[in-house]
Amino acid sequence: MSVNRDVDPPPGKRPRTEDPDSDSDAGTTEPQTELKKHETLWFDDGNVILVASRILAFKVYRGVLSRCSGVFRDLLSVKLEGEPMEGCRVVHLPDNPSELGYLLSALFLRSSFIVTQCGFEELAAILRLSTKYSIPGLRQESLEFLNYCFPANATMHEFTSLKRRNLLKAPGAAIGLVNLALELKLDAPIGNLALYECCTMPIRDLCDGYKRSDGTTETLDSKTMGRCMRGRDILVSTDFRRANQWMNVTRPTVLCTPATCPGLNISVVRRSPKAQSLFQSGHHAPQERTAYMDILQPYCRVCMSILMNERGAGRQTMLSRVVQGAVFPKTW
Ligand SMILES: [Zn+2]
């Protein structure tokens, strides 16, 4: 879907947000360019057209925007003299078109927005723009979900892993989350746990950055990358090894009934070459979960429960240190 854009000035001439003076150059002799209409956020009876980054247009309802957001209310109350489009007032916004689309979907297609099913890109867009346009309900909803996925309490971390994995399933999304946490000054647990997620990524992927669906790429700035690398050193040299100590556990007194269980007279690391290589690598990447389940598979329920408890305790100690900023100090 597209529409002729004949009232828009050349790029760079208009301020980031439309104001009464910004239409003085409307109707210039610039060649006409195509402006796309959003496929679903184009209501025929809408009464205002928002244009994101001069690329994508949304025809929505002024009253709803004004009611949800004081910033939109102020923006729309300014009298503009620009040329209307399809009889509607046109307001240019500097926002990323995809991001504005996510925000407007959450506002105007409310039933299709379920925060707990959001991918990172959608959640980030809604949190970023609900903060910018001061939309308290959406901001709180998205922030609460982020806090749920990245809890300050390390014991909760295991329980929320499924939601967290789902949220960050796009490759490199943790990089986007670190940047979002810095940009919006989110509470420390989120930023620290996002840096931790970055540390579980292969270095090459970390350097390649987070590729968003619009083709743009986000990377960590050099200072944050340095902080991440330093934290990674601390994790590999100290915390990952500590978290892997469950592989060294022995319990000679435990009686196992199934004859097939290897028992805990000898530690997992001494019994299994696979465990040994995992332990020696000091690695703690997400794929480790699959690897350790494989290692634990021959053990009986009693032994497995002992080992899992030990593993849980080790992970909690590590995550507590991450949350408290011991692994990623702001200055180092
Ligand atoms: Zn056993």
Automatic annotation (TrEMBL):
Organism of provenance:
Jaapia argillacea MUCL 33604
Residue segments, region Disordered = 1-33
Q: Which domain of life is it from?
A: Eukaryota
This one is known as BTB domain-containing protein
Which positions fall inside the BTB domain?
A: 46-150
InterPro entries reported for this sequence: BTB/POZ_dom, SKP1/BTB/POZ_sf
Upper taxonomic classification of the species?
A: Eukaryota, Fungi, Dikarya, Basidiomycota, Agaricomycotina
